[in-house]
Amino acid sequence: MYEIAEHDGFQSKPMTEEPTIHPSATVRESRLGAWTQIGEHVRMRESTFDDYSYIVRQGSVANATVGKFCSIASFVRLNPGNHPTDRPTQHHLTYRRRQYGLDDADEEAFFEWRRDQPVTVEHDVWIGHGATVMPDVEIGTGAVVGAGAVVTRDVEPYSMVAGVPAEPIGRRFDRETADRIEATEWWHWSRSELEEAFEALTDLETFLTEHA
């Protein structure tokens, strides 16, 4: 079982290798990596959330794979549910049948579609406040998603997108620099390697000189 934080200073709580989960959060059928943090009222199910990544309050993550060192702001939704617009009614009574006393079981095929359209967030991605990442979208390593964006298609590594629907607005680094950083795969370094290279991780020129 994962540790449940039991105090008001949740975000300032010293981190450990064990994931830290706010007591109001719900995590079901998911795997959490080391040094992860799940914030207030987050809902997560059938997802993977890898080392050092965090999501703050009121987020929703379903059928998603989130890499290492990802920073996910409040009110972000990864893989929101869709409604069956091709049916005479798009109301969820057609697939959440038990709630309405219409069947003894829900329509499993409808929920399987969502599982077959997962969201993938690679490493060191920052997703801003209130952004939504739609089903079957992949966000590349090092990318930035602006606050309030609705991401409907794949995002290139180290690019920045914003808007509804999200469109490219720039890059964090030129392609050569981005390729050099990505080639190091620093997000897979051991804890001791991270500690040894910590100062370099705070300065681009030093990092490129010493590690890329």
Quick summary:
By secondary structure, this protein is an alpha/beta fold.
Topology summary:
Blueprint: E1 3-4, E2 20-21, E3 26-28, E4 31-32, E5 37-38, E6 43-45, E7 48-49, E8 54-55, E9 60-62, E10 64-66, E11 71-72, E12 77-78, H1 108-115, E13 119-121, E14 126-127, E15 132-133, E16 138-139, E17 144-145, E18 150-151, E19 159-162, E20 167-171, H2 175-184, H3 191-196, H4 198-201, H5 204-211
Parallel strand pairs: 1-2, 2-5, 3-6, 4-7, 5-8, 6-9, 7-10, 8-11, 9-12, 10-13, 11-14, 12-15, 13-16, 14-17, 15-18, 17-19
Antiparallel strand pairs: 19-20
Give the neighbour order of strands across the main sheet: 1-2-5-8-11-14-17-19-20
Oligomer: single chain
Helix content: 10-25%
CA(first)-CA(last) distance:
38 Å
Most strands sheet: 9 strands, mixed
- Averaging pLDDT over every residue, what do you get? 92
Q: Can you tell me about this structure?
A:
With 212 residues, the protein is of the alpha/beta class. It is built from five helices and 20 strands. The protein has helices at 108-115, 175-184, 191-196, 198-201, 204-211, and strands spanning 3-4, 20-21, 26-28, 31-32, 37-38, 43-45, 48-49, 54-55, 60-62, 64-66, 71-72, 77-78, 119-121, 126-127, 132-133, 138-139, 144-145, 150-151, 159-162, 167-171. Strands 1-2-5-8-11-14-17-19-20 form a nine-stranded mixed beta sheet, with no helix packed on it. A six-stranded parallel beta sheet has the order 3-6-9-12-15-18, with no helix packed on it. A five-stranded parallel beta sheet has the order 4-7-10-13-16, with no helix packed on it. The longest helix is centred in the C-terminal third of the chain and has 10 residues, at 175-184. The chain is globular. The N and C termini lie far apart (38 Å). The mean pLDDT is 92.
